[in-house]
Amino acid sequence: MSESIPASLPLRNDLIGEEPYGAPQLDVPVCLNVNENPYAPDPAVCDSIAARVRRIAPTLNRYPDREHIELRQAFATYLKRESGVDLSVDQLWGANGSNEIMLQVFQAFGGPGRTALGCDPTYSMYPEYARDTFTAWRVAHRNEDFTLNVERTIAAINEVHPAIVLLTSPNNPTGTPLNMADLKRILAACETAPVAGAAEGVHPVVVVDEAYIEFRNLGTPSAVTLIGEHPNLAVSRTMSKAFAFAGARVGYMAASKGIIDCLRIVRMPYHLSAITQAAALAAFEHTDEQLSRVGHLRDIRQQTAAWLKTQTYQGRPLEVAESESNFLLFGGHFADRDRIFRELLDRGVLIRVVGPEGWLRVCMGTDEEMARFRTALAEVLAEPQ
Ligand code: PMP
Question: What is the mean pLDDT of residues 118-143?
Fold first, then answer.
């Protein structure tokens, strides 16, 4: 890729040699690599999307509602139902995937002289948002079992004085949830922490990325329940995962009006197309259908985790990280994970090489897809290592 870029182009010095981010998009029978919901929208949802888009098509000569008010109301209605929290339209914000929301967060709160802090291993896009906005990226390492190390995280907050503290719950690629007590301790530490490069009295924004939160075990609360008490807390969500709407590219953020108003400063005008808004509104009309497989995927996760633990590699059982998401990080001691990845791919099963050395990630597919995954992995593990 980088060889195809002529040396005469004035690409930013810090981008020279960089590769575009993204998992391989391959035409294989079993795609378990990007944490999508494997179930297609049902025909009633497709009809509603078509009808809504047909209705607005004659208005496409005009720009869309820049403030996407109707959609922000739909986010509020959804969060009320999903987490029991009352939020107003001005506490919600949408964009083209939570990727775009997060970039807006970095544009608004990061920048030269500013630092963002994450807890690795974590989502590999975060350092890219930091790079793209000239924000320094620092990490506080998680514990061996991938739970957050709260002491280390608070020590890092007091050392690097970040403008953004990025927590992920459940975390990608490990699936680890963040418990409320730990989140509250970090929020309390941030509420008195200074921000390097900012005026006195300025404190970090704490972003909880809840892309996979609907897959959490029943009873685990969402960070959106804390928004009312914490003006510097922002929670990002997406329709891409549990909501089975990745292709539409819709993410959203719940936060104080102040935080949302900061994002409004940096957003592109009319960033969310009228077609996207119409499709998302149609999908929210069918929330029950869109979420109907979440419980099943949660069960499949439990069954797959149990099965993986019965498998061995080099005479030792596979490790499986505790997950409240729709994927599992497994292995722990694969000596050559790239080979296992390739051999699964040879058998038509695409998973992901991501996370610490020795581990691989698989996302939950349909029953048939998971059966093919199990057969293929058992074959690969049975070969001499
Ligand atoms: N956050 C996390 C932790 C993710 O894993 C992903 C997708 N892989 C995203 C955010 C972005 O999702 P989207 O842009 O589709 O909303």
Answer: 97
Nearest CA to ligand 1 atom 1: 211
Domain boundary among 265, 290, 315: 290
Asked if residue 350 lies in contact with residue 26, where contact means CB atoms within 8 angstroms, the answer is yes
231/336 same-domain check: no
CA 348–ligand 1 middle distance (angstroms): 25
Domain that holds residue 334: 2-41+292-382
Query: Are both 283 and 368 inside the same structural domain?
Result: no
Mean pLDDT of 239-252: 97
Query: What pLDDT, on a 0 to 100 scale, did the predictor assign at position 220?
Result: 87
Per-residue pLDDT for 329 more than 80? yes
Ligand 1 pocket list (CB less than 6 A)? 35, 97-99, 123, 168, 172, 209, 211, 238, 240, 246, 251
Same domain for 248 and 325, yes or no, is: no
pLDDT at residue 1, rounded to an integer: 58
- In SS3 terms, 167-199 reads as EECCCCCCCCCCCHHHHHHHHHHHCCCCCCCCC
Query: What's the whole-model pTM score?
Result: 0.97
Domain count within the chain: 2
CA distance 205 to 163: 6
Evaluate whether ipTM surpasses 0.95: yes
How far apart are the C-alpha atoms of 112 and 110, rounded to whole Å?
A: 7
Question: In the predicted model, is pLDDT for residue 30 greater than 70?
Answer: yes
Q: Is there a single domain that holds both residue 236 and residue 90?
A: yes
